[in-house]
């Protein structure tokens, strides 16, 4: 196991450091302390060719100018909150409105746009970097001083795990996720429409025209949202389902997971042979197929475009504070929020 560190750039005069975790199989995970952004994940294909399978940039300036949350930890609240407002114990809170009058992914300066402290830990069979950040009371409108730890761990068995931990001195909302865009073709050789996805999910959330949950939980049966058996991502882009039209002929929907820590999310690319299995303790996953990716910038020499990557954001449900029948994302004073998501990379021949 190895760890490599180097300067990645500067933000307002503050140095940004890149840390690369490398296991004995040659798998690499690189991240920076700006936004805890995962910049690269290098894994082999069925022929042993090692390539990058996430979207990311080579410079901090590109992240600040163009990034739609590539690889970042988003919070305090991942997803949208309608109107950017909520109540806790009779107290009203107004958050920053950064998405059509709503609050998205923590606001104007969420976890993805701050510099985190970091510490590396080396071991014989795994190596880690721990990022820490104190989100002050009132930041982006949220109550409570929230201490957040994010731990990235790479094992010798090509398993990459993210451990989240947070505690607040006031009751608040917490819903964090990693916003990596995956493309298993390697080095963005193809888009993700021919990737196959399996989801252990029997239901998904209906969205309104602002992509906020209506509160209705819909069955996947008989719809292009049914991934209980493996199906191509392109099924969504080619579907006339009304929910697909809302999201730009693709997916941007929360699914409720029917199982946890049991191969509940599996993404495959048959041509490269790469397989990504995701296991989590979170109640849902947002499948986003990059339908809003703009084409006015390049990603390591490849022009950005729709369907170039997809996100599998393990998290609580968006706008849950306004829907009591959704799993709660309320964190009580001094309660410890903990969550784990594991990404397991393998190949099929």
UniProtKB/TrEMBL annotation:
Catalytically driven reaction(s): alpha-D-glucose = beta-D-glucose
Metabolic or biological pathway, per its Swiss-Prot or TrEMBL entry: Carbohydrate metabolism; hexose metabolism
Database matches in Gene3D superfamilies: 2.70.98.10
PROSITE patterns for this protein: ALDOSE_1_EPIMERASE (PS00545)
InterPro entries: Ald1_epimerase_CS, Aldose_1-epimerase, Aldose_1/G6P_1-epimerase, Gal_mutarotase_sf_dom, Galactose_mutarotase-like, GH-type_carb-bd
Enzyme class, broadest EC rank: isomerase
UniProt KW keywords: Carbohydrate metabolism, Isomerase
EC identifiers of the protein: 5.1.3.3
Database matches in Pfam families: Aldose_epim (PF01263)
CDD domains: galactose_mutarotase_like
Record family assignment: Belongs to the aldose epimerase family.
Protein name per UniProt: Aldose 1-epimerase
Species this chain originates from: Fictibacillus barbaricus
């Amino acid at each position: 196991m190895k760890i490599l560190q180097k300067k990645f750039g500067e933000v307002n005069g503050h140095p940004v450091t890149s840390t690369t975790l490398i296991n004995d199989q040659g798998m690499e995970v690189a991240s920076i302390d700006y936004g805890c952004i995962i910049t690269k994940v290098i894994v082999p294909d069925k022929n042993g060719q090692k390539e990058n399978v996430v979207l990311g940039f080579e410079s901090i300036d590109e992240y600040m100018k163009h990034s739609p949350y590539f690889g970042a930890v988003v919070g305090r609240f991942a997803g949208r909150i309608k109107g950017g407002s909520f109540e806790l114990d009779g107290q009203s809170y107004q958050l920053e409105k950064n998405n059509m009058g709503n609050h998205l992914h923590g606001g104007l300066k969420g976890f993805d746009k701050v510099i985190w402290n970091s510490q590396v830990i080396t071991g014989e069979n795994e190596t880690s970097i721990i990022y820490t950040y104190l989100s002050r009371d009132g930041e982006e409108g949220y109550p409570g001083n929230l201490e957040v730890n994010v731990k990235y761990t790479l094992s010798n068995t090509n398993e990459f795990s993210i451990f989240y931990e947070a505690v607040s001195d006031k009751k608040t909302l917490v819903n964090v996720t990693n916003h990596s865009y995956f493309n298993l073709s390697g080095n963005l050789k193809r888009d993700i429409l021919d990737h196959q996805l399996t989801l252990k999910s029997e239901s998904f959330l209906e969205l309104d025209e602002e992509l906020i949950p209506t509160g209705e939980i819909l069955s996947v049966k008989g719809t292009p949202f049914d991934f209980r058996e493996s199906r191509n991502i392109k099924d969504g882009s080619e579907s006339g389902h009304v929910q697909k039209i809302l999201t730009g002929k693709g997916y941007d929907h929360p699914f409720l997971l029917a199982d946890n820590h049991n191969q509940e999310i599996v993404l495959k690319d048959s041509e490269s042979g790469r397989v990504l299995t995701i296991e989590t303790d979170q109640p849902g996953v947002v499948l986003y197929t990059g339908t809003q990716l703009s084409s006015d910038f390049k990603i390591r020499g490849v022009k950005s475009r729709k369907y170039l990557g997809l996100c599998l954001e393990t998290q609580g449900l968006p706008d849950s504070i306004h829907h009591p029948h959704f799993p709660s994302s309320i964190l009580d004073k001094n309660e410890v929020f903990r969550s784990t998501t594991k990404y397991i990379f393998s190949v099929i021949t």
